[in-house]
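Forgive a beginner's question, but would it be possible to get a protein, spelled out as residues, together with the matching structure tokens, please?
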Amino acid sequence: MLDDLLGRTELKDRIGELEATVERLEDECDRLERQLDAERERRSEAVTDRQEAQRRVNELDDRVTELTDRLDRLRADDRSVSVRRKATLRGERLDEVLARLESVETGPEGALTAAIADGHDLPAAVTETLGERAALVERAAPCALVADDAGLVAACLRPPVRPDPFCEWGRRFRLDRAWFQPRGRYTLALVRSDLFAMGTYEGEQRTAFHGFDEEIKSQHSKGGFSQARFERLREEQIDDHLDRCRAALEARETDRLYLVGERSVLDSFAELDPAPPASPSRPSRRPSTRSGRSSSACCRPRLPTVAPPGDSYDRRSASSARRSAAVMSSATSATSR
């Protein structure tokens, strides 16, 4: 009675309706949140599945390319030719193999040496000497070829320092030790998207070292704007790391520089100017009168150079970069046939 007189009954009914509405809206909000979480999980799984599918597609593309190339070779040749042996040489074994090749002596024009830059443009002397085995040189290029006219020696060498193209006959193979074992003072640097290591060498002795690594974001499982933002931040991290690497290379103390590492990353340093040759070029020899045999001037390595020097050292990441310094050794890959 008193509530009716004071008007409370109507207010209590209104309050009850509002409380029921709030409860209904809270239930609806919870339902929408669960639906949103389920959608996020579904999109995350979809992105992961897409990345896995793309990786599988890349593997299958590589396999198709490999099989297609093999089929083309089988169709082109009556019988297939293959490399007899492959080896990576360094240290004493490299010295021994080079000395053995240097000891080969033939008649006036019995030893053929050629620096091949492009496997699609072999010198006539190479194709005439090797015949069907010249296809192996095409696959090995760029390389340095040594072969004799008796067919006793036939090998492709891949020196760390690529010589300028040439092709000549002589009594001995024309091999410059500087292609395989850099002499004097030089810098060897390893550049990756997450790691940098640079050593200064005097012959085979390392006299200085500088290195650092970078915490690059790894694979991201979310899609949409989150994925795009992650990829943008990762690219910015890599760009900052490469700028830091470039600054370290510009602060080095030597003229000669050898760069190894990720091919996609090394392309960023293509603007560096070429350095002077490692050794003076030999004067060109008189052309041979023998058919198909020609000579050219001695080659020199293509080496980028930058300005001198600095000695900064990143102590935070020195240990990880020091581990990578193990890759800094002169090596050459020899393929014998």
Remarks:
- The chain is about 40% helix and 20% strand.
- Residues 273-337 have pLDDT under 50 and may be disordered.
- The two ends are 113 Å apart (CA to CA).
